[in-house]
Amino acid sequence: MNDWTHHPIYTRLTAPTHPFARHALLHDMEVGLARLGRCPGLAARVHHFVERGVPYFAPTDTHYQEWAAKAAALWDELHERNPSAAEPSLV
Questions:
Q1: pLDDT (tens digit per residue) in 18-45
Q2: Contact, 4 vs 68, CB < 8 A?
Q3: pTM, to two decimals
């Protein structure tokens, strides 16, 4: 796995400020996915991630860090498939 700790999404999700941004990310991912059109594999992964919701904020917890890293990876995949699909509204 990549070192996601410097990724802007990861940084934002682990920062103690702006708690709403953690929830806004899930919405932004769904909007980005809708802009892509048909993309079944990625759609399934994004929907599964979004359905789980935001876990309890514990930035030093391994599980929370894994969640933030997965968010960054999905964000990058959305952006790689279509650079305009994932507008970085929280970065």
A1: 888 898 999 999 998 988 878 889 999 9
A2: yes
A3: 0.84
Q: Please tell me the distance from the alpha carbon of residue 86 to that of residue 81, in angstroms, as a whole number.
A: 9
Of 48, 47, 52, 51, nearest to 33 by C-alpha is 47
Residue 57 · residue 65 · CB < 8 Å: no
Is the pLDDT assigned to residue 61 strictly greater than 90?
yes
For residues 74 and 1, what is the distance between their CA atoms, to the nearest angstrom?
A: 13
The domain ranges of the chain are 15-81
Sign, CA dihedral 85-42-56-1, equals: negative
Whole-number average pLDDT of the chain:
87
